[in-house]
Amino acid sequence: MSSPARIAVLVTLSSSLALAAACGDSSGDSTFGASGGSSGSNGETTSNGGFGGSSGASSGASGGQSSGSSGGDCFAPVDMYIVFDKSGSMGEPAGNGAPGDCNVGETKNSKWCRGINALAGYLKSSSAKDQSAALQFFSGNDGANCNTGTPYDQPAMPSTGYTVLPSTAFDAALNQRTPGGGTPIEAALRGLTKFTAANRTPGHVTIGILVTDGDPQGCNENLNDLSAILEAHYQATKIRTYVIGMNGATFTNLERIAAGGNAPTHAATVGSLNNACGNVTPPCRFWNVGDGDPAGFIQALSAIQESADGCKPGGGSVNPPK
Questions:
Q1: pTM
Q2: DSSP 3-state assignment of 101?
Q3: Domains annotated on the chain, with CATH
Q4: Distance CA 301, CA 303 (A)
Q5: What are the DSSP E strand ranges found in the chain?
Q6: Which residue from 237, 241, 314, 265 is spatially nearest to 62, judged by alpha carbons?
Q7: What is the pLDDT of residues 29-62, one digit of tens each?
Q8: 44 — phi, psi (to 5°)?
Q9: Dihedral of CA 115/121/127/131: which sign?
Q10: Alpha-carbon radius of gyration of the chain
Q11: Cross-strand pairs, 83
C-alpha cells in the first residue's frame, strides 16, 4: 500500500477436532504459556499469562507430551498457508514498489527484502522439519475478487497442497515477485480461509499466515467485518488465524483483526523477539516483528509453529480422518 511502512503477518492456524487422545487438543480460546500449560475453557492458567516469555517459547517437555517433529507417541505436524503482502509500501524505506525489491540472499533496506529473507530462512530451517507450507502473495495489482478471495484461494507455491519442510523450493517464488499496489486484506483473508478449510490433511494441524504491511486498502476495510471473517472460519473449522505486524502498522487494528482468528495470546518477549506486542498491552494475539529483521521474524514464525503443535497443551486441534 502507499501509506507508511507496515507489515502484518496474519497467520491462520487451522485447527479441527482432535484426532487422538494422545495429542493435545485445545479447541477453545487458549493462552499458550512458557511453562507448557494453557488457559482455556477448563480455567487452567499459565504462569506468565501468554505464549512465550523472557525464557523463550515452551519446549513442551514440561507438558508431558512430545513435539510434532520429535518422533514421540504423538505426531501432529503443522501445515501452514502463508499469504504474503507484496504491496508497494513493502519496498520502503528503499522506495515504494520496485526500488525495494531484492532476491533471497541479497541485502536491501526494505521491508520486502528483509521479509522474504526471513521467510526463506524459516522455510529451509531445521526448526521447520516435518512441517509443511504453501505460499501466496497479495496486493492491489492482482485483480482480486473481494467476495470470493480469488486468486488467493490457491497457492503460488506449490500449485496445490503443501510442500514438506525444510525446503528451498520457495526461493524462486519469492524472487519472482516485486512489491507494488495496495492492500486488499479482505480478499486475502477470504482466499486464505477458503484454502485452509479445503486443504486439511488428516492427523495434521492446518495453519495459514497472512503477511501485510498496513491497514486494509481496497475491498471491505471495516475492522469488525474482517475480524468476523476469521471468527466465522474458526467457529466452522476450529482453524486459527495469526497476524504478524511490522513497524508502521496500526497495532491496535491488527489486534482487532487477530481477535477473530482465535490464535493463542503471547507475551511481549518470546525468545529473541522483543516488543512482540508493540504498543498493545500484553498478552496479545498479533505479532510485531519490528522492521522485519530476519532473526526476530524467524523467531515469531517458529513460535507460531510451536503454538500450533497439536501434541502440546494449548496447541491446535488435529484434523480428523476424512
A1: 0.82
A2: coil
A3: 75-276+289-308 (3.40.50.410)
A4: 5
A5: 8-14, 31-32, 38-39, 78-85, 132-138, 163-164, 205-212, 241-245, 287-288
A6: 314
A7: 454 444 333 333 333 333 333 555 433 333 333 3
A8: -75, 135
A9: positive
A10: 17
A11: 136, 210
